[in-house]
Queue: 2 jobs
Job 1
Amino acid sequence: MTFLQLSEANIIGAVIAFILGLFLVPLVITFSEKNGLMDNPNERKIHSHPIPRLGGAAIWVCAILSFLALIIMSYYPHRALLSGLLLGSSLMFLLGLIDDIYGLEAKFKFTIQITIASIVFCLGVKITSIFIPFIGMVTLHPILSYLGTTAWIVGISNAVNFIDGVDGLAGSVITVSSVTLGLIAVALVPADTVSALIAFVLAGSMMGFLTYNFHPAKIFMGDSGALFGGFLLAALSVMYQMKSTDIKMYVPLLILAVPIIDITFSSLRRILKGTSPFVADAEHIHHKLLKFGLSQNKAVLVLVAFSILTGGLATYIAASDTTKYFLYAVIISAVMIILNRHAKIGEGKQEE
């Protein structure tokens, strides 16, 4: 049994990112409104009025500033592969930001995403072996390693982007998934301090953003936020797989179950219809829940509850003694968001 102990850096990083989010997101909202950087409603979208779409900028800035703060406090982990994670996620954020502002062709974005994944692969973040039941661990040929790694990173990045269609959904799923990956990284022997720190900083940044993103949302994360968060989840899961030597390497499939299920069925549906899997539509899982009669908040609750369930199962499989910490983290995160959201509702009523 591994005794789990969260390091000060993880907690401090998450708290700093959360607090920064509370102050930075309103600034991004104001900037977006003044410069017309809004997400306008159409037949595929469910919101009825223009909403700022540059939430990803606040999320990215929160994460980067948190790392800078940790450097100042001498908490920065000088470890291998960190440069690949930070560089790759920043490039993915930049791609999404350009798309949010100017709009890019789907095939062009896909090409750039493959390029970014290739850069990260060259920097050492790669799937080098897989576990095959009744056979054991099998080392992959470099070409298969490259194809598998890039497919996973690009696929998960887009899968997270696909579920960003209901207020609070993508941010909540990213938060649950990053907390899960962070706890598992801490429980590894030896602990993966780099993955843990990045995961908790990402969770803190997302929680700060979520206080303004639940229905009715004041801001959207846009492609910049979804691709940034999705990339980090994909890369962190690869980092975990690199340290796994048995069937536990498939734990990320549970952690990322919601976006994986959604992108799988969405792609198959579009291919069977004879359309491109890159063409957006309004038939994702969250759309179907809305058509079933659920409100946005209830649809998010259903999918997030499922994500928490699979995340809890993942922590139990990876390291059973981390499960209680996973539940503690979920409860604390929920309380932080609810209290902050309640305070904002109270402020709104006073202004009226």
Job 2
Amino acid sequence: MRENPLVLHVLGARPNFVKAAPVVRGLDELGVRQGIIHTGQHYDALMSDVFFADLGLPEPVANLGVGSGTHAKQTAALLVGLEEVVEAQEPDLVVVYGDVNSTLAAILVCAKLGIPTAHVEAGLRSFDRGMPEEINRIVTDSLSDLLFATSPEALSYLATEGVPAAKMHLVGNPMIDSLFAALPSLDSSRLEGIPARYGVATLHRPANVDTPEAAAELVSAVLEVSRQIPLVVPIHPRGRARLAAAGLVDGPGVKVVDPLGYVDFLSLVKGAALVVTDSGGVQEETTMLGVPCLTVRPNTERPITVTHGTNRLVTPAALPAAASKALADGASTPAGELPVLWDGASGPRIARVIAAWLKGENLSPASRNGRL
């Protein structure tokens, strides 16, 4: 290892920025040289650029600007762009986050170039290979040198797949670090035109929006919910046209808004009486904020948000009734039952493991169980 090793972080979409910020800060405090590659997978300024400002992330060393496209076209563009930047930067370690196509491409590029990698949020599984993200998770974990898990069950899934214990580290959830840091700034009154009592809906998964039939069924259910409580709907660029064609537009009970920055979005969620989503990160954020969450999916790679949080899985057909019950019951996560190590200190844990690894130190079992 070089005397002054370089760590590169590959970020492509909103959740990546939120997870990376605490790790970047932790490594900075330890004096580790680092840089960010922004792939531009989320090319909308409201889905990416604003997050750099909200989260205090440094300017990227490169912005690939790949934009949207089919999985094949987007991943191909990422492979070409990342290979060029990684070869030029000559990092000693590349850190990837989550399960987006940018993560998959970075892992493949580094595996071919012989560059070590670390995966933050390793071991999550929905056990549904029909989800593109599930394929990305499996491939990424199989090729990573360091695997940082957010929950104990993630470690067991990795072990079942044959990952050596020495590679795995239980560190908690760095997304929660960012949420804790933002809490003092959260205030739904900063957002104009929001009703006193409202719900939030965020919808973008392919299974929900990529066909007219699926989008129509989902929008019909969401509009039924809007008759129980006004809904604020930040529209993700993915699926915007399909959802609008199915009738998810401004109207009675529905306020459609552009994507929000990190603090504004969390402010909206914190003040909500109910959240309807298909996003993984939102399941985690609502768990920590004690907001009832209905996830319109048949499965989740984050089951801990169901067992230890406010999240429930629902079908579109069951959504209106589930919303009625959630609004009647309310929700708050019982004290002492939050997921283990979701304590706002995951970024420094990850940074300490990376710094020790860069020095060639043998990591103890304690470091693999969040006690380094």
